[in-house]
């Protein structure tokens, strides 16, 4: 289908535009909270290296540590900050992920940039994870925070998102891709770069 290649191209464009982002991540193989904890860690660590965002990113790492407390199997990154108790540690996946992504957005906003999550194989996420993703993206959108999610998955994904949260239909833009020919697979990334 070429969806992963397309995500990789979007990742390149985001980095060139100065946005903070994760490497394209295949989701669904484990607990989604572990995945988002690792992705947020990558982003916050990157933002903490920038002078304008250092203090705000350090505070956000405390929220990440609180979020990570409930991750099955634990979170492997060593965080030398105190957990921000009472934030992102309620045990409610939707609320906790929304708080974490809002923190990432506030850090990005403090540095005049944005943060974008690239997720592949999203159809593998269960209903709880999809509901949490929808709720979180809705929350950051309501607050006008510069956080985006670019996800790819197989054709059932829009239906699965709507089943998780009915408002998902109007929240996301869905673009269906068909199989690319060999020639299109070689030309499409070049065209995307030219258009951007």
Walk me through the structure.
There is one protein chain. The chain has 196 residues and is an alpha/beta fold. The protein has one domain (3-195). Helix content is 54%, strand content 8%. It has helices spanning 3-16, 32-48, 54-68, 93-110, 127-142, 157-164, 168-171, 182-195; strands at residues 20-21, 25-26, 115-120, 147-151. Strands 1, 2, 3 and 4 form a four-stranded parallel sheet that branches. β3 (115-120), α5 and β4 (147-151) form a beta-alpha-beta unit. The radius of gyration is 17 Å and the shape is globular. The two termini are 21 Å apart.
Write the layout of secondary structure elements.
Blueprint: H1 3-16, E1 20-21, E2 25-26, H2 32-48, H3 54-68, H4 93-110, E3 115-120, H5 127-142, E4 147-151, H6 157-164, H7 168-171, H8 182-195
Parallel strand pairs: 1-3, 2-3, 3-4
Helix pairs in contact: 1-8, 2-3, 2-4, 3-4, 4-5, 5-6
Question: What is this structure, in a nutshell?
Answer:
Helix content is 54%, strand content 8%. It has 196 residues and is α/β, with parallel strands linked by helices. Helix 2 runs parallel beside helix 4 (93-110).
């Amino acid at each position: 289908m070429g969806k992963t290649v397309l995500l990789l191209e979007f990742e390149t464009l985001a980095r060139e535009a100065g946005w903070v982002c994760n490497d394209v991540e295949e989701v669904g193989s484990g607990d989604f909270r572990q995945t988002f904890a690792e992705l947020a860690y990558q982003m916050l660590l990157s933002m903490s290296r920038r002078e304008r965002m250092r203090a705000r990113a350090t505070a956000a790492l405390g929220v990440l540590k609180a979020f990570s407390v409930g991750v099955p199997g634990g979170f492997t990154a060593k965080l030398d900050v105190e957990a921000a108790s009472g934030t992102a540690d309620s045990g409610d996946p939707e609320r906790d992920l929304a708080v974490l992504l809002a923190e990432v957005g506030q850090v990005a906003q403090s540095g005049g940039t944005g943060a974008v999550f690239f997720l592949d194989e999203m159809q593998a996420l269960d209903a709880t994870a999809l509901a949490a993703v929808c709720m979180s993206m809705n929350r950051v959108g309501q607050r006008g925070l510069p956080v985006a999610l670019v996800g790819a998955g197989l054709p059932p994904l829009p239906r699965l998102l709507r089943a998780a949260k009915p408002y998902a239909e109007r929240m996301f833009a869905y673009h269906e891709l068909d199989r690319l020919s060999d020639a299109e697979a070689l030309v499409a990334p070049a065209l995307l770069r030219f258009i951007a």
